[in-house]
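Subgroup meeting minutes
Present: P.N., E.W., G.H.
Scribe: E.W.

1. P.N. recapped why we're keeping a running log of single-chain structure predictions: easier to compare across weeks, and new members can see raw inputs and outputs side by side.
2. G.H. added today's entry (63 aa).
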Amino acid sequence: MSLFDDEKPKKPLTHEIGCDISLLSADELKARIDLLNAEINRLQEEIGRKSAGRRAAEDLFRK
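Output recorded in log:
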């Protein structure tokens, strides 16, 4: 039995839009900003992939 068995596993960092942020520290707020920026980048990359696929299909059918 480990000395650290009583410690609860850390919950993964998440952010719910519109949630109360008044009790978060500056470091926690910065971590949430990093999380949201990473999600924005992921969404923008997906938009780019979908746009490229659409352009390729349009070019194919225009010929």
